[in-house]
Amino acid sequence: MGKIRSTDEPVGRMAKLMAELYYFMAREFIERLGEEAGREAIRSAVTGFGEARAKVMREEAKERGLEINAETYAIVRDMPGISWEKDPANPADITYCPMHDMWDQLDALEIGALYCEIDSVLYHGFQVDFERPFCKTSGDSCCRFVIHDKNK
Prior knowledge:
Layout: H1 10-33, H2 35-63, H3 70-76, E1 85-87, E2 90-96, H4 98-105, H5 109-116, H6 118-124, E3 128-131, E4 143-144, E5 146-149
Antiparallel strand pairs: 1-2, 2-4, 3-5
Helix pairs in contact: 1-2, 1-4, 2-3, 2-6
């Protein structure tokens, strides 16, 4: 299984543990339901999780008197980005993701790619158009996040 050590940075360690739990659950869905129905169930679960997260973040934004947009998403985002690394020359490019690292160790990038779809759900919840032309789970060297506020 994936290598996680107690001395690893705590946020990255928790992200890897979350990715590993997701892997075991997703793999079980596919094994029990079959490839197509399993993937459909995974996507449904990831979408539901993303919608629930976005709802709570929008509630926080409302409590703080913030508009619903990309800037606010960055302020109220519930997942810390401490262990993710960006390309200093292009901050839209994530060059290291602890979740990808775990899925890569587990030889489960295809299953991980289904989880990555959550970003579209989260950004959509903040009225943001989101594109990811490059994704590490698809074999690219980075995940590129291209976002545009729908209201601008």
